């Protein structure tokens, strides 16, 4: 597995590395890639990490141009897989994107625009139909993908140049400069197979002095938990409970979770305490 990113790691200026994990559910990955190829005029590469698919996903991924593919024989989890992808990324910017998403016109242009205009922003996320945070638009008026595209164009045009600071962002789509990874490291893979690794990444970003931002001028459709459903994993059962306990223990919580209080208590960022190496086994 590649080593951590460093300031000396070669990268391609202006390019975005889109990191996508897969584990079966090939039809959704195809839909995601079709939308990326249609709506992403920017310079980009896609870094795929397959976590043990048993369908035709890997064969399909090998056909995608401008991409890298890392194949794990078993499910290494969301955090570990994303770290593999970030370590292999060549882009100046990195986007972690779920394979059950459908991007829309201007999605990346606006996400990158916020990062380029405001250096105080550490991570920027889009609005979406299926996300448990202030990023959510509910209800949405569409019932088809055609209707979704029309709604997304109208909504993002209406809110062009609009956004707001967030207390947290959800990991279905997060965009950031590679400098962030050089500073705070990757996702914490103790949160296996998924849940709470995005909360942890956001906290460490804020502890490092950067803010979280929601871009109202970027909309991404999210089917939601497709990989977990396709692989018959109980995301809302034992996984969430166990990772919730790990999160509370890691951050020394006892009676409540208030992110701003953790950030205030933990600041300034200390590498020995807060940095998570990409290559941790």
From TrEMBL:
It holds the Pfam family Glycos_transf_2. Residues 17-140 form the Glycosyltransferase 2-like domain. PANTHER family: RHAMNOSYLTRANSFERASE WBBL. This is Glycosyltransferase family 2 protein. It comes from Paenibacillus baimaensis.
